[in-house]
Amino acid sequence: MKIIPIRAFEDNYIWTLIKGNNAVVVDPGEAEPVLKYKKENELNLVGILLTHKHSDHVGGVRTLKNKFDLKVYGPKEIENLADIVVRDGDIFEILDEKVEVIKTSGHTEEHVSYLIENNLFCGDALFLAGCGRVFTGDYEAQYNTIQKFKELNGDTKVFAAHEYSKTNLKFADSVMPSEAVSSAMKLVETLEKEGRPSLPSTIGMELDINPFMKAGSFEEFKKYRDIRDGF
């Protein structure tokens, strides 16, 4: 299975899973980039995985559903778009690959992530050196989500939905500077110059550079989240 990023808006990635001529997209916030990539690469779009309800993640779904015979998987908060509503612990197959659903609430109430082999598609729940804003106000839920990510294998690849890496690393350097953070910034800047995504990272990398993953308590996590919101 190949995993390809399709860029959307200013900083979104629509991660595209490809096996043979069949493809599945994650969080298609707009349809046009997906349609263009599908046509150029002669792919059959057979499924959509949705992590949460925000428009920059679901805005292209109706157009794609109207054009193609495909299945849409997503959490209860977008059951109007999902053919199959997924819940924590669900396991299903897509492209002949096992998909495990992990509830990763905090950014939104029903946010989910998808684990496929050692590939984590986590929407806005986890970023390189960061995590999503807690729009629910339920900071404990987001903290608990981070604890779930900590339990994954260190080599798990983290396919976040946004290219926020430089800003997140600047924040990380301001609250817990380290050689690992400096090295990550150099790498991200090199990739940017080459026109390449900074993602995926890995869980192991996040444990080294991500203040929210390194926080030793809920209070420390909340402190970093409050500072980051005003950064």
Automatic annotation (TrEMBL):
It catalyses: an S-(2-hydroxyacyl)glutathione + H2O = a 2-hydroxy carboxylate + glutathione + H(+). Zn(2+) 2 binds at D56, H57, D124, H162. One of its GO terms (biological process) is methylglyoxal catabolic process to D-lactate via S-lactoyl-glutathione. Its cofactor is Zn(2+). Binds 2 Zn(2+) ions per subunit. One of its GO terms (molecular function) is hydroxyacylglutathione hydrolase activity. Zn(2+) 1 binds at H52, H54, H107, D124. Pfam families: HAGH_C, Lactamase_B. Keywords: Hydrolase, Metal-binding, Zinc. Pathway: Secondary metabolite metabolism; methylglyoxal degradation; (R)-lactate from methylglyoxal: step 2/2. The keyword Hydrolase applies. It comes from the Bacteria. Its EC number is 3.1.2.6. Monomer. NCBIfam families: GSH_gloB. Belongs to the metallo-beta-lactamase superfamily. Glyoxalase II family. Thiolesterase that catalyzes the hydrolysis of S-D-lactoyl-glutathione to form glutathione and D-lactic acid. This is Hydroxyacylglutathione hydrolase. It comes from Peptoniphilus indolicus ATCC 29427.
